[in-house]
Amino acid sequence: MEVGIIDINWWTDFPNISLRFQDVFIEESLERSSFPLAKLEELSLSFNTLDFLQGDYSFEKIILKRGEVTIRTTRTGERNYDIIKSSNNASGQSVNFNLKNIQIQAVQVNYVDEALKQSYLQYADELKASLNKVGDVYHIIADGIINSKAIKIGEYSYFENKNLTVKTKLNYNQAAETVDILPSELLLANNEFQVFGKYEILNSNMNIQVKGVESDFTTLISLLPPDYRKQLSEYESTGNAEFEGSLIGKLTSKESPQINFNFSVENASLFQPEYNTRFEDLSFHGNFNNGARQSLKTSQLVLKDLKGNLKGKPFSANLGVKDFENYLINLSTEGQISTQDLFTFFPNHEKYTKLEGLIEFDVRLAGYFEDFKQASTASRINNSGEIILTNLSGVYEDYPLPISEVNGRLMFNKN
User: Looking at per-residue confidence, does 224 or 2 come out higher?
Assistant: First the structure.
């Protein structure tokens, strides 16, 4: 540990003593490494000397200002923070201590696990905490505002540049190497998330329960990894959403936990600016899980009782998607759509003019996503149901003959 300047104040409020360290550098504990565990512009401590002499290791206040703390585990499992060994006195009894008031101001806190390819990059703007060690258990409470730079798991990044208000309680058992997450709250853009569960550090095993209370559709979309979020970011969305789920099992470079989430959306809307199309009064409930082998191959998504309207025309649907490597789709849907609104989703839709008429549909489709994209493979798709055309008219600029007041019924029966 290196310190630039040390200020001591013992005369103002003796037996209370205050220490202030400036330009603090604490080296990580890994051999042949000189990288910092912590770099701080200021570290302040205040404590009662008489309590210390009597074995009561309580700090009234600890302040960390402007700096960075990096906690990391190497690919071989070595930890850079083992400067804090199991605390025992000369008789072998565990030494307890109590940090009553910890204030963290403008400090970047990083946790990196190189073996699991995970990193948690958080900036504590104004965070208050307490830490009470009793035996082998550290009781931790934290309350304040942090900015999540990113939570990176493998190739995906979550919670990028999100301002969070946290109220969390943790119990860290040093002997068992476990973390108990007591019921805690995260507040993101006025959306409340409740989290609790347990994490076993040595075998990377978790049992975490998450619940979203009075969330909104937009915020839930913003939490997705960039690849998924980009596809939905073109849509402007509103609406209320709730979800609850669990992550159970091991999270390693080769293993994923069981993921199971139930969710529901009410009074939502989606607007696509490119097509000037708005889906309104959306409601549905569903489930996502990653299946028996916890992989993309066994993952599945189910949307049930999806209802809404497009420019006043109602529709309903049930959707199932299996095998997230190849996307096996099972869709049943019924409703109405105007000819003009339908053709806005077609390529080169600007070539279609004078569109009129109504299309009613009640169809069921099942097949792989790639087969839907090409006419040569469309025959592989199972389909059934009917489409009713009423007074369908329109002009396609590359075809010389207009279509006028077409009526009919199209039947599908490829089971």
Answer: 2
